[in-house]
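Section 3.1: Structural characterization of target chains.
Under the original work plan, the team committed to producing a structural model for every single-chain target entering the pipeline before any wet-lab resources were allocated. The record below documents one such target. The sequence was received from the expression subgroup and is listed exactly as submitted; it comprises 339 residues.
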Amino acid sequence: MTSSLRPTRRHVLTGGAVLLAAPALIGRAQAATVLKISTSFPNDPKYSTGRIWYDLFVPQLKAATGGALSTAFFPDNQLGQEADIVGQVKAGVVDIMLAGTSIWSNVVPEFGVFDMGYVFQDYQHMLRAAKTPAAAALQKMLVTKAGAHYPSFGRNLGARNFLTKFSFSEPAQLAGRKIRSLPSPTVTETVRLMGAAATPMAFGEIYTALQAGVLDGMEHDAPTILSSKFYEAAKFFTLTRHIYSPFGAFLSDRTMQRLSPAQRAGLLHAVDAATSAQFARAAQIETDAIAALKTKGVTVEPCDRAAFRKRVSPMWAAFVQKTPDAKPMLDAIHQTEKA
């Protein structure tokens, strides 16, 4: 795909979002409150983490609130890059942000504990750790420091892996290679320790950077790579499985304060139900996405994960030394490693 075609794709996604939001907007006269929902994820009902969660959430919200709350959905960075939306959530301009926990570590550094490379064995391990008192303490910290509620720990549709323009299987082969990392200090450090030249970059800038050769690769989950068409610019997908970060709905505290007690309860119920439903089906979606990438000409390869883990694991102790309030969460992660 040439860069001249890129705007067309964006227009299609934007048009789809407008159509998706239309029922909610049409019903505004009947609804007490329209919740503005933003995500960086594309408007793909099959492979987009944000859109899949949203489609599960809408009927749950209607049932839980009797239609008192409705939604307007803005995928694909329509309202701004993730870093900007964090501020809008805090201000109550955006009511709900669908994102991974990573972006919030910029305002609540303790959340970076979830992004440390190879700290989780898999998503079931992450879920066990999310049910501990240490995780509850971080949820309260997010409200205090960032004005956002994170009521339910969910999961992305797959582990984060590397999509590159070259083949590799060990850390030495990443030397000097510019790999996009999510603009989170912990994710950036993880990618650097894996051996690459970590390059933080906003999600919306990745495609053109890959296409122009500014990047040699990126790291993300398979469904997102598929739905965002990043495979058009890079053809090697390496199963590093270096991060199993949480995903979910981040609710503005200002919005929560504006709602009635019944509306708040209904919203929280709907968030929990949608998050649980997505968690249950995510593994199969990841498997399907990897298979679909192969049909797009992408080579899927294993790697020496033990070698990468050995390089990255020293960051765990270094992180809690720098961010001591994250230690209870790291301890809980270690304690819940086995079911």
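The mean pLDDT is 91.
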